[in-house]
Amino acid sequence: MRPTLSLAMRLLLATLLSLMPACGKKSPLPPTQKTVVYTVRAEVVSVPEAGKPGSEFRARHEEIPDFLPGLHSEKRGMRAMIMPFPLGPAVSADGLKPGDKIEIAFEVDYSLAGGELLDSRVRSIKPLPPDTALHFGERPADAMPSH
C-alpha cells in the first residue's frame, strides 16, 4: 500500500514551497537620505599632510547659487568662502598645492526625514588652467536671487 498525504498536508507543503523563493531575500528598506552633487570652481588653500593630524583639504570656492543649506530649505545658495572639503574614498589631493585652480564635484547627503545636511565628501577634483579667472567677490544686486 502506498502512503498518501492528506489534503491538509498537501496544502501546507504547497504553501511552504511557494514561500521558499522569498526566503533569504530582504525587502529593501525605504531610503533615509538623498544625495545631491554640486560642482564648483576653487583655488586650493591647503592639502592634507601625511603624519600631521588635523591637516585637511581646504579650498576657496566661488559662489554656489543652487546649494541647499537643507533639503527642504526655500533659501538657496552659498557665498564664496574658504572651507574644508572632506575627500571621498577614491579621491586624492596628491599633486595639488596651494594656489592650484581646480573644479570640485562634491556630494552632500540630506536626511529625508528632517531635511538637514548629514554629510559631504569630494567626489572628484579636476585641474583647471593656471590662468583661469575665479570670482570670489559679491554678485551685482540685480543678480541676487529673490527669496
Question: Residue share in helices?
Answer: under 10%
Tell me the fraction of residues in β-strands, as a range.
25-35%
Catalogue the unreliable spans.
140-147
Radius of gyration: 26 Å
Mean pLDDT: 83
Shape: elongated
CATH topology of the domain at 33-130: OB fold (Dihydrolipoamide Acetyltransferase, E2P)
CATH class label of the domain at 33-130? Mainly Beta
The SSE string, one letter per element, is HEEEEE
Which secondary-structure class do the elements indicate? mainly beta
What distance separates the N and C termini? 86 Å
Would you count the extended β strands for me? 5
Report strand order across the widest sheet: 3-2-1-4-5
Instruction: Give the biggest beta sheet.
Output: 5 strands, antiparallel
Overall CATH architecture of the domain at 33-130: Beta Barrel
Fold and architecture overview:
The protein has 147 residues and is mainly beta. The chain has a domain at 33-130: Beta Barrel (OB fold (Dihydrolipoamide Acetyltransferase, E2P)). The chain has one helix at residues 7-19, and strands spanning 33-46, 58-61, 81-84, 101-111, 117-127. It has a five-stranded antiparallel sheet, with no helix packed on it. A hairpin with a 5-residue loop joins strand 4 and strand 5 (117-127). It is elongated. The N and C termini lie far apart (86 Å).
Give the SSE map.
Blueprint: H1 7-19, E1 33-46, E2 58-61, E3 81-84, E4 101-111, E5 117-127
Antiparallel strand pairs: 1-2, 1-4, 2-3, 4-5
